[in-house]
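Give me the fold.
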Amino acid sequence: MLSKMSLVTTINHSSCEEIAMFLDKNATAFNPPFNTSVDIGSYAAKLFEHAVRFEVRNSDGLVALLSSYINSEKGVAYIPYICVQQGFEGYHIGQKLFEQFYQYCRLNDVVRVELEVRVSNHRAIEFYEKQGFAMQGSNSEKIQLVKIL
């Protein structure tokens, strides 16, 4: 049984290596697997250097990650990656990541959040809709979602 007391939320705490290990460990949570479309090491370095990362960790390391690119001048944030590690679903960790992210956005003059999700990822689409995201556009592979804060 997961103890909520053992989970800690952080911002930009993880090293590049920890991010790479998390991305690799959770690659198959995506369809197609994440590591078939990106180079994990390069992507981890990009997130480490340029993204604001909202993390949930336990004593073993990262168990959830939401990364975002913030453009305060335009008031827009883009979420390129969010994942809760298998076995940690159902504990509202994704919800808590978004709450932390929204608070950060408000403090940094962000009024619009954008993300993309694969058309086939019905579970994620349902989650994002519960978060208040609405469809902005789509193509045969992805749906673009937006939320106004």
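The mean pLDDT is 93.
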